[in-house]
Amino acid sequence: MTETSNNTTVWVEEIRLSDAGRSLNVTFDDGEKHSLSAEYLRVESPSAEVQGHSADQKTCVGGKAGVAIIKIDPVGNYAVRLTFDDMHSTGIFSWDYLLKLGRDRDVIWSAYLERLEAEGKSRT
């Protein structure tokens, strides 16, 4: 469940893998849909390993262009834990975070690509 900008509650209605685990399709109960690549979800994982314990500790993860999601586990009725084929599985993706990743994908992805370049890293 998450609060949208107009203070209505939004729940995830369906989560489905596609493209051999390379994409996660999320449908919210208000009809909003987002298709999120496994690479995007992996490099923006809400885990402490990626996010750190504060904004200035965020790690720029490279080399994940070919990553796939191999398992989805529910966490209560508010989130899922994704397991990737590189065995990363510590991030809990709340409905709110999935919605943010979908809505703000262009801005978040652009910032990621800029960080990659600045750090001399590659997606592959």
Give structural notes.
By secondary structure, the protein is α+β, with helices and mostly antiparallel strands. It has one domain (2-118): NE0471 N-terminal domain-like. It is 27% helix and 31% strand. The chain starts with a strand and ends in a 6-residue tail after the last helix.
Question: Topology of this protein?
Answer:
Blueprint lengths: L1 E2 L5 E2 L1 E7 L4 E6 L4 E5 H6 L4 H4 L17 E7 L3 E6 L7 E3 H9 L1 H14 L6
Antiparallel strand pairs: 1-2, 3-4, 4-5, 6-7, 7-8
Keywords, separated by commas or semicolons:
globular; alpha+beta; three-stranded antiparallel sheet; NE0471 N-terminal domain-like; 124 residues
What is the makeup of the main sheet?
A: 3 strands, antiparallel
Low-confidence stretches: none
- The overall average pLDDT, rounded, is 93
Strand order of the largest sheet: 3-4-5
Radius of gyration: 14 Å
Number of discrete helical segments: 4
Number of domains: 1
Quick structural summary:
The chain is an alpha+beta fold. The protein is built from four helices and eight strands.
